[in-house]
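Hi there, hope your week has been kind to you so far. It would help a lot if you went through both lines with me. No rush at all, and the record is pasted right below:

***
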Amino acid sequence: MTKTMCVIGLGYIGLPTAVTFANHGVKVHGVDINPNAVRSIQEKKLHIEEPGLQERLNKAVDEGYLTASTTPKEADVFIISVPSPINPDKTANLEYVREATKSIVPYLRKGNLVILESTVPPKTVERVMIPELIQSGLDIGTELFVAHSPERVIPGRIFEELVNNGRIIGGINKKSAEMTKELYQLFVKGPIHLTDATTAELVKVMENTYRDVNIAFANELAKLAEDLDVNIWEAIHYANFHPRVNIHFPGPGVGGHCIAVDPWFLVELGGEKAQMIHLARTINDGMPLFTAQKTQKILNENNIAGGKVAVLGLAFKGNVDDMRESPSLEVIHELQQLGLEVVSFDPHIKENKHPTQTQNFEEAVNDADMLLVLTDHKEFKEYNPLSITPKNKIVLDTKNCLDREKWKEAGFQFYLLGDAKNK
């Protein structure tokens, strides 16, 4: 079994992956271009939030199985886990993948395995990585083995899903796929499926695009429900009792490093062949404006001109500190464009990362005309509304995470995304 590994990229996926391999007896050297992240890891301090990560990091470093620096070194296996964002024009930015691949070339030797974990457009291994790896002088497929094994985990449950989720592995040839399977069998309990690299790339993007299209459907239903005086959350709940129906839930937009990004890969590749995917992305990208306009409408109905909105939640999902592609940021922008004052608070984001942000909940809500919940953090669900005294007791819940009756009993006018009624 492999004795040494070099993991390029120590973010939300790379660090948990590196730590997991280290905890299973692999000597792992982690690499990141951010010296602050490297220093934090060396000092056993976390630069990201994930349940269970601190204990696993402590064990890996203390036992000597995990080191970190800003430069790679020789190893048996190289895992690339770097961002693959989109450009402002919605095209894929693959420079992180390209540069990460280029960075390991001087350290490659015969028999090495290179694995891409980043979610990427189909053909990235073939068109971006292989041309860089050829520069090693090693014969691709016989002396140097290459595979794509995309991560399939969600922040907040990464370690559980790293172990229990099934894994798709696409090799440039059969040997590459088999070597990668043997490696991940160290800890993966879910089924491992082998295919070619391009199929694996497409499978991961398909999975996230399916969810994006489903959410867009839910968001359209939410808008329709408001016109029909129906609570869409209740309607979806009942519809999902059908054994062949699984409608997702609406919200103020779609965030995260995958669902809000990956469908654009297919739009870029497919053009006119990806019309439904493009439409779904457009619908979901339009939800921050819809949310902001609904907020303004509620203020107007309560005879509040202008007004101050306390935005609760900056992370893209509950109980994490991840702000990547968070719709909250766009909602805030749209609110400000409408002339509203905004202050934001997120208990999981410990230092101010946004101009409207405060670290003090009371400061955010005390003189607010309206509370706007954009993230379903556990803390928000547990707040006692009797102890919250804004200027005007109005709340809009975009995640259906608050106890409506409790908030109404505390004197709040309660509004819900996907439900026009203030019940």
Observations:
- The chain has two domains: 4-190, 209-416.
